[in-house]
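Case study 2.
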Amino acid sequence: MAGHILIVEDEHKIAVLLQDYLEKAGYSATVLNRGDQVLGRIKRNPPDLMLLDIMLPGMDGVEVCRETRKFSTVPIIMITAKVEELDRLIGLELGADDYICKPFSPREVVARVKAVLRRTHPEPAGKQLAVGPLVLDENTYQVKVRGSELDLTPSEFRLLQVLMSKPGRVFPRDELLVRAQGYDCEGYDRTIDSHIKNLRKKIALHLPDHEVIHTVYGVGYKLSVSN
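Prediction:
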C-alpha cells in the first residue's frame, strides 16, 4: 500500500537507510532530524505514518508524540535504543501504535509500517481496473481481454494489477518485485522478467497485434495499450 512516511531521526545513516528501504517498498518518505520541526510539518502536510525516534534535539519523541495526539491521529511507530518496559508503556500510553528497539532490521521496519497501515487504513473494497481492452476485477481476481478471460497465476495477476494501476508509469524491477510479490531482493533478480514474459504471451493470444507491456531498458516496465 502506497503512502507518505515521515521519518523523524537525528542519526543521518539510520534515517537515510530507512528512507531508502521505504522508497524501494513503494512509499514516499521525508526525513526530519529535529523534534521541534515535527508538529508544524504534520499540520501543513499530514503523513500517512510517522517513524519517531525518542532521543531527538529540540523536542524529544515522547513530547512530540504527546503533542501530536492533541490534534492528529496519524499512526506513530516509535524508535528507540531504550528497551525498558516502562519506556514502552509510556510510549504506547501516549498514543503510539507500535514500538521498535534499536538495533533493528530495516526490512522489519518496513513490515511494521505495512502492518500498522493495514490496521489504521483498511484497504478499500476491490474495484475494476480498465486499460484499453484489458479489464481487471479485484473482487473476482479475473482479467479479461475483449471479453476473454486470461488464465493467470497469482503472481502474474498482482504484477498486472500494479502495472494497470498507473498506465504509462515506468515501474523499476525491484519495486515491481516488492509490490507484486511482497518482498525485497538483494541485487538484480530475474523473477519479474519471467513473469513479464509469461504475461506477454498470454495477452498476445488475444491481442496479437498489440504490444501491451513495454520494456524501458535499464529501468523496468510500463503498461500502455490502445483499444
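DSSP finds eight helices and twelve strands in the chain.
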